[in-house]
Amino acid sequence: MSERYATLASRIDERFGDQVRQVPSTCGELTYETDKDDLIEVATALRNEADFGFEMLMDVCGVDYLTYGSDEWTTSEATGSGFSRGVEREPVILDEADEFDPRRFAIVYHLLSLQHNFRMRLRVFTGTSNPPIIRSVVDIWNGANWFEREAFDMYGVLFEGHPDLRRILTDYGFIGHPFRKDFPLIGNVEVSYDAEEGRVVYKPVSIEPRTLVPRVIRDDNRYSADLKDSADG
């Protein structure tokens, strides 16, 4: 971390104390985590106070930490993640759990201070409530409006106090939230235009689910060291 950002981190730690916790970074970027109950107070101070001046909200995004850090395949000769996350899972249309793991869904705010030329991230977990709920920051940064709608559409996070919280990327009748880790890759329904009925219709998905497996390094004669050395001359 540069000296400038180390100074900023010291100011944040001194100002907010236990309200924020610094997230370790391998690339020197500044990221803090705060509780959902402290979000509005911390965000307002980061925007208004002269030491920080984060007057611009660059982005708001959701994160689903379900199965975070877990390999999908156990293997000693190939990666544990493959080329995609296209493993077989039971389709989930609506999550019927009473509550979520408290650190499953997070909302991340990307902040920019034009006056100080600083950037930082602020991460907030939504807690156990189902559906996940967090306070809207539209009254602090008006640019959060569409970002929060996108996070609601893709992850199903509700933003309390948002002036117009509705889907922004999917159709009005869409079922589920596509960026959740337990959402089926083939979706729940498929949409097409029916010329006879003169309208868009919803039908059961006709695509068969498939499993994408990682590339396996096979131990056979094609990979013999002798053959390789002879080919290289």
Strand content: 15-25%
- So how many helices? 4
DSSP strand tally: 9
Radius of gyration, in Å, reads 23 Å
Major beta sheet summary: 5 strands, mixed
Report the structural category: alpha/beta
Query: Portion of residues in helices?
Result: 10-25%
Overall geometry: globular
Integer average pLDDT: 84
End-to-end separation: 48 Å
Strand order of the largest sheet: 1-2-5-4-3
Secondary-structure element sequence? HEEHEEEEHEEEH
Q: Low-confidence runs (pLDDT<50, min 5 residues)?
A: 83-94
What are the key terms here?
two-stranded parallel ribbon; 18% helix; alpha/beta; 9 strands; 233 residues; 4 helices; 5-stranded mixed beta sheet; globular
Could you explain the architecture of this structure?
There is one protein chain. With 233 residues, the protein is of the alpha/beta class. The chain has helices at residues 3-16, 39-48, 144-155, 225-231, and strands at residues 20-22, 31-34, 56-64, 105-113, 118-125, 133-135, 158-160, 189-194, 199-204. The strands form three sheets. A five-stranded mixed sheet has the order 1-2-5-4-3, covered by helices on one side. The protein has a two-stranded parallel ribbon with strand order 6-7. It is globular. The chain starts with a helix and ends with a helix. Mean pLDDT is 84; it is low at 83-94.
